[in-house]
Amino acid sequence: MNKGVVVNGRFQTRQVTGVERYAHEVSRRIQPDARLVIPGRLYAGIRGHFWEQLILPRLIDKAEILWSPANTGPLNFSNQVLSLHDLSVIDHPEWFRQEYALWHRFLLPRLIKSVKAIITMSNFTKNRIMEYFGLQPEMIHCIPEGVDPHHFHLQPEVETLRIRRRYGLNGDFLLLVASLEPRKNIERLLVAWKKISSELKDRTLVIAGGKYRVFKEIDTSQHVDNVRWLGYVDEQDLPGLYSAAQAYILPSLYEGFGLSVLEAMACGTPVVAAKSGALPEVTAESALFFDPYSVDSIAQAIVSILCDPLLRRELKERGLERSSLFSWDRTAQEVWLVLERAAA
Question: What is the Cα–Cα distance from 239 to 96, expressed in whole angstroms?
């Protein structure tokens, strides 16, 4: 590589969800070959846009390649590779707060036209980028996300007991780990859970995830029996939480990848997922699918996964095998190859 690589470290100022986990996992694997530039605390939150657009370009030599791993980057630095996780803000601006949607719908078309290459995580998103922006396929590199088997694996009983004690979880439970945002389809999930609660009296729906100001609010006020809201769960607790769950559900209306299903499968947890976005691509035949727009379909899938131990065992085995195909090391190697080509 003739040019140095600089990593846009704005993601370091944010709480870890799927996008940030990708950025952390890949960036630490390409260092020290790449230089990580991180904004100070002053530029957390919305001020991060100011840092990214006006200050970051001044910290990079024009001969260097900038990798922006978390959906955004500076408009006035064309020697750049962008990782774009999905087009949800383009396809569904109604899911976001107005100011966020307006800014990103202004930024993305201009940024995409200025960068040297785009990395995305699924063929679903690659196809959407080509359709919407009219780009040629050779400009977009589909590199799946990974899972760390040293962190996400079936946990011993001592760890699942610790998690149960810490969060006050008793008995069998169905788990969802997701930001509380419209596309996660939590409102329909709650209606479906309420509909079947009489059949599942001894089970709990556990929802782990926080609210973020970039998204429109969802209605979490309706009373539904046997539902626990854990709030944001630290990533150190996630493997034990996945392992303790009887099954994992992701009812999203739209996913550019769906990293949590991969993490759940790696922990030996059977997965039931929406047949939407990139989820069928990521899970292949390793999940039980449902129509995310149908409450009845969601309810039927939940009953099937929770009441059929043979199905759970089969999906557990398939999930372990499927998740073993995804590696952050491989992801980082492929990202580095794209950066090398961009720098040549």
Answer: 29
How many whole angstroms separate alpha carbon 229 and alpha carbon 231?
Answer: 6
Does residue 246 form part of some domain? yes
Can you tell me whether residue 265 is helix, strand or coil?
helix
pLDDT digits (tens, 9 = 90+) for 222-237: 788 899 999 999 999 9
Residue 283 sits in a domain whose CATH number is: 3.40.50.2000
Residue 152 is assigned to a structural domain of this protein:
no
pLDDT digits (tens, 9 = 90+) for 95-147: 999 999 999 999 999 999 999 999 999 999 999 999 999 999 999 999 999 99
**Domain residues for 293?**
157-323
Closest-CA residue to 342 (of 73, 64, 102): 64
Which residues make beta-bridge pairs with 141?
119
Give all strands (DSSP E) within the chain, no chain letters. 5-8, 34-37, 65-68, 80-83, 117-120, 140-142, 172-177, 203-208, 227-231, 247-250, 271-274, 287-290
Task: Report pLDDT for 18.
Answer: 86
CA 10/CA 156 separation, integer angstroms: 35
Single pTM value for the model: 0.94
Is 263 a domain residue? yes
Question: Do 175 and 313 lie in a common domain?
Answer: yes
